[in-house]
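Hello Y.,

Per our agreement to keep a running log of every chain we model this quarter, I'm adding this entry. I've kept the format consistent with earlier entries: sequence first, then predicted structure.
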Amino acid sequence: MGWPRRTLAAAGVAVLAGGAVLTFGRFSYAPVPDRADLLNPDRYPLQTAYDVLGRRVSRAEAERLKATDAGRRQLSPEAGAVAIDEALVERGRQAFYGETFGNEVFLTDVMGMLDGGLTPKEVALAVARLRGAGTNNLQVAMARDVRVGDRVYRTGELIPTGLDVPRGGSFVLGIRAFYDRGHLRMGITCALCHAAVDPGTGKVVEGAPNADLNAGLLLALAKNSSAYFMHASVPEADASKSWDPKSWDPKSGDPKSGDPKSGDPKSGDPKSGDPKSGNPKSGNPKSGDPDHTGATGTGPALPDAATVEAATKVHVASWPPGSFDSSADRVTNPTSIPSSFSAHGEPYSWSGREAVGPFGGLSSLNNNVHAANSDTTQLAAAAPWLFGMDPERYLGIVLRGAATPAFRYDPAGARKPSEVLASVDPTPGSPGLNSYATLPTYPATNYMTDNGMFASVPGEPANHANNAMSAFQNLLRPPADGGDPAAAKAGRAVFEQAGCAGCHSGPALTNHRVIPEEEIGTEPTRAVAGAKMGARLSEPAMFATDTPFPLPPNPTIVPIPLEGDRLAQVQLAWGQAGTRGGYKVPNLVGLAWSAPYLHDAGVAVGPDAERQLGVPGTLGRGVAPDPANSLRALVDRDLRARVIAANRASATGRTARVTGEGHAYWADAGAGFSPADQGALVAYLLSVDRLTEAAPTP
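Predicted structure for the entry above:
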């Protein structure tokens, strides 16, 4: 395992400056493009002085508030206020490109992203072969054979990774590499998904979704894909049903509590899954249960490792390029990567579930990536109500195939999975492996954070980097359209006539609402992805925005008011309170950079609208969806029907539940619009490259 990592260090192409590294022993690097390397260097002017739990406070209003004691309290960290200035924006940009919050440990040592089919050596060679040309889809040769379902990726085969390298660059955008005395780790930053290289110029578009990032395939080619089994439909992980979820103590969530209701094997509870109890359902090998993989019978009952690994690889590999499954609901239902042209686009996430707290939920969205999606070990405490699974068993599945031996759980060994994790945890003061500031209510969900944790950087306030990234993202705007103004003006009239403005209104062309699934008609399983989190729910809260990290004793907690229609909308977005869930009305700024469309990325049409239909005919063949043709499919029922048919005919599309269905609002012949009207509407939609003229600036 060490040889290819040292090869990368010697190559000096991807991350390491060999001589300096060998001298000092430690080094890390993430590329941050210069302004001259950006296709969209212009930003909105900074005019907001404070964000107070999502309320924008202008500089003029801030000056008035500072004149009174009551006003100063409104702008205080104890009220949840974030002071916004150019320094915060710059910190946000640096974090956007360079902050991993420690996820390199999970991705490298547990998931084995560097030890599967793609290795650092091959990535370095692929970058070197560009000779500075740049790419929006780095082709990397397989280092070894890897089977994913019926498909075998062969040694030497070029894999379309979707990784971006800017023109003149020698490093992959959105990846930070760490070299520590012979050990290379790879971490991901927000830029991996939310910045893209323009294939025409080789320049970076800040905020554009990386529409061909092959995240699912990259996970499938990792050594230990099982570490992501909870983001996929893998019933094979349930082969042993030894543990009763009712036995978990809902107050402590601690399997070490000794409470006979806690599921602690030490308790002797016959429902706990303790192999010492003699329970025939416990997974004790003496009981004849074939699912136990531990030779001693003292560890948790685990399903067959190869079966879980194979199933997980198939499901994550089904995600279309440009998509990611961010919901740990154990159902394969990825969503398209959104843009970071986020100003006035609240609520955030595909469902609108990120809706409370600073920047109208944008900080919550940023936090979710690093506090939930880039370290699955932190979900262990919530495994009882999310998955009906004992925490030790959950960790056993995640750690059993870990790439680095010190992180690997041995079912035949003497240590429990949690003890293995504790022995290597770089952040022993918090759950999981990443760097977290943890609320007293952990692991309960609150609507500000999935699990009561905030990804934070030591030496600065808790959640500060996420807030800083929000301030930066809210200033981003796509490159200028440069289209026909007359066509766009005519298209705006069609937009109004077709009723689009009923939902797509306001500064960013969204009314900020969540539409019930039964009305919008999009994938129902995705809409209820957050339903089980309601089993352990605390009041929305966060830390005061000046709370130092690591946390002091008794840090100040800021409650986040949520009631009435606002509460009902959040519950709908999470699929809770008896609802069937919903989908948010997305903003329309930057549509030229965010094809394909709909939440599942299913509305995709290539330059050849007759043959390049759906995900199978575009992204599945390495063809970039054409924004104009794809938007036409969004509003033309006949073309959409063909797109849906193409998606349904795809086995991988069915696995990923990518259909292109829903949003049945038409501007076609059936609705009384001519082809010219439809063309004008598409021209208008592609022209939206900034907030509307009447919009207040971020």
